[in-house]
Amino acid sequence: MPLKNLQFKPGIVRDNTSYSNDGGWFDCDKIRFRLGFPEKIGGWVKQSFNVFLGTARAIIQYVSLSGANVIGLGTNLKYYIQTGGAYRDITPIRSTVTLASNPFTTSSGSNIVTVTDANGGYVTNDFVTFSGGSAVNGLDLNKEFQITYSGSGNTYTITADSNASGSGAGGGGSVSAAYQINVGLDTSVFGTGWGVGNWGRQPGTDASTEGWGTGYALSSASDIMRIWSHDNFGEDLLINVRNGGIFYFDKSTASATQRAVSLNTAASTFFSLTNDATCPTIAKQILVSDVDRHVIAFGCDGQTTIGTQDPLLIRFSSQEDPFTWAASSENTAGELRLGSGSEIITAVETKQGILIFTDASLHNMTYVGDPFIFGIDQISMNTSIMSPLSSIAVDDSVIWMGSQDFYIYNGRVSTIPCPVKNYVFNDFNLEQKEKATAGLNSSFSEVWWFYPSSSSTENDRYVVYNYLDQTWYFGNLSRTVWLDRGVNDYPIAASGGYLYNHEFGLNDGSVTPEVGITSHIESSQFDIEDGNRFSFVSKLIPDFTFSGSTSTTPSVVATLKSRNFPGASYLTTDPSTVTQSVAGSSTVIEQFTNEAFVRLRGRSIAIRVESSATGVQWRLGTPRIEIRADGRR
Hints:
Layout: E1 3-5, E2 25-29, E3 31-34, E4 37-40, E5 44-46, E6 56-63, E7 69-75, E8 79-83, E9 86-89, E10 93-98, E11 104-106, E12 112-116, E13 127-131, E14 144-146, E15 155-159, E16 168-170, E17 176-180, E18 228-233, E19 236-241, E20 246-249, E21 261-262, H1 263-271, E22 285-288, E23 295-298, E24 301-302, E25 305-309, E26 313-316, E27 334-337, E28 344-349, E29 354-358, E30 361-369, E31 373-381, E32 391-394, E33 397-401, E34 406-409, E35 413-416, H2 421-425, E36 437-441, E37 446-451, E38 461-466, E39 471-476, E40 481-483, E41 492-495, E42 498-502, E43 507-509, E44 515-516, E45 519-523, E46 526-527, E47 534-541, E48 544-545, E49 555-563, E50 571-572, E51 576-579, E52 596-602, E53 604-611, E54 619-620, E55 624-630
Parallel strand pairs: 5-43
Antiparallel strand pairs: 1-55, 2-45, 3-4, 5-42, 6-7, 7-8, 8-9, 10-17, 11-12, 11-16, 12-15, 13-14, 13-17, 18-19, 19-20, 20-21, 22-23, 23-26, 24-25, 26-27, 28-29, 29-30, 30-31, 32-33, 33-34, 34-35, 36-37, 37-38, 38-39, 40-41, 41-42, 43-44, 45-53, 46-53, 47-52, 47-55, 48-54, 49-50, 49-51, 49-53
C-alpha cells in the first residue's frame, strides 16, 4: 500500500477549526519549533533550596565589582538580593519608633502576642523587628515578626516561636520597633463598583462611605498589586515600588544589616554627601539610561511639587549622579511631561532609546545632549498594552502583549499576526491582567508571555512567539517573572517561593525526585481526496530523534485519530510506543521502533505525539503512514 509523509507547517494554528487547518498543528504543551520541526522544551531545576517570601514580580541580575553574581528580586512582601543562593532582605524601613512601656501582652499557653503601638501606619502582613525589649513570660521577642491587624485600633498581634509561660504585659520601657515599608497586594483589586472587596463591597473611610456595590479610590502603593521596578547603577541598586517610594542600596559600603534607604537620604547614608531635597519620592517606574547614565523616574513628583505624584511627569538626574535632581545650568538634571494619555504604564529601554507606554499612546525618548538632554516623540496613538510587565526589548525592537493583539516596534508600530490570538484572549482573566509578564529566551529566539487563564487568579498559562521563524505555540506553566540568560548561563524564572534555572536538564525539578515533563503536540485533521472518501490506515512508520536523552530507553507515545465528520468525536488507535534502545555508552540516535501496525478508518486523520517520562528529549521528523482509500466497512 502507498505511504504518505506526515509533514506539517511549523507553528500552532488554533483560531481556525481543526478541519480547516489541513497540514498544520492544532494543539500542544511544552514543545517548541526548531528548524520547522517540533521538539520538547528543556527542563528546569531549583536554583537553590532557599525560599523567598511572597510572589516575585521583578528580577534583575548583574555582576558586582568583586565579581559576585547578584540577583535583585522584588515580591509583594519583600525585596531581596541573592548571592551564592542565599537571600538577603534589604526591604526598606518605613519608620522606627520607641513603644510605650510593656507593649507586649501574652496569654499562658499561647504563642499569640498582642502588641500595643499608638503610632499606627501598619497593615496586615507588614513586617516589624523589635529590639531592646526584655523577655515576656519566657518569650524573647527581639526579632522580626509579621503583623496581623484588624484594621482599627492601636494593637496588632504577632506569632511567637513558642507558647508563653504566663499571662500579662511586659517587655520593658526601651522596646524599639522598626517597621518595613507596607507590603503590597498579591492580586489586582479595582477601585470602584461591583466586585470590589467582600461580597461586592469595599469598606470606606467611615460608615457614610461604605455600602452595597461601593468602592474607593486607590490611594497608596499598599492598595494595589505590588510591582517593583529596579535597575543597577554600577554595582548599586535603585528600586521603586510602583506608585510608591524610590530607594537606593549601595552593595559595597552597606553593613551586613543595612537595608535600602530612600533616595532622598541615600547620599548621606552611604557616601557622607549632602542629600538633595528635590529628589523624587514617588514614581511608577525607575531605570538607568545605559547610554548616558542618567537615572530616570517615570510618573513621579516634580521638583517643586515633592510628594504630589504626576502620572505623566518624567524626571532625570544629573549625568553620572543618581543623587542630584535639582535642575540648574551646572548639571544635566531636568524634567519632561507627556502630552497625551492619563498615566504612564511602563517604559522599556532599547539600544536606540526608551519606549514609553501610556494608557492611550506610545512615545520614544532619546538622548539629544545639551541643552535639552532628552527629547520625546509621539509615535503611536490608541496602542494598548496588557500590563506594566508585558513588554520586552529584543535588540532594537520592543515586542508586547496588548489588550487583544500582539505588537512590535522596530521603527514603527505593527500588529504581529497571531494564529492563536483568540485562544489566548478568550480564556484570559482580565481582572488579573496586571500579572501578565513577558520574558525573552534569546537562545531560541522566543518571547514568552505568562498570564492567568479565566479559571485562575495567578499565571498558569504561557504563549510563545518565535520572532525568528514567526511561529506561535502555547502551554501550561506557572511562572510569575522571567529573566533571560546573561550573567547566568540559563534563563531564570520564579514560582512558589523558588527561582528556577530553565532550559536546564530534561525534567521538572520543582519536586524531589524530579519527574518527567508532560509534553505533547497534536496535528489538525488531514484527509485523502479532500475527505470525499474513507481511508484505511494500517501502519505508522516513526521518524524521531532522541538526541540528548539521559534515559537508556527514551520513548514517546504516538496516537493516530480519525473522524468521519469535522464535528464528530475522534476514533483512536491503540497508542503506539516509539522507543529507542541504548546499549552501553554508544547511542545510535536514529535507531528506534521500525513500525507500528494499526487499524483505523475515517475521512480525516490526525496524529498526536506525547511523552511524560524522565530523561527524555524528543524531536519529531517526518513520520509516514501506510494508507489507502477504503469503504466504511
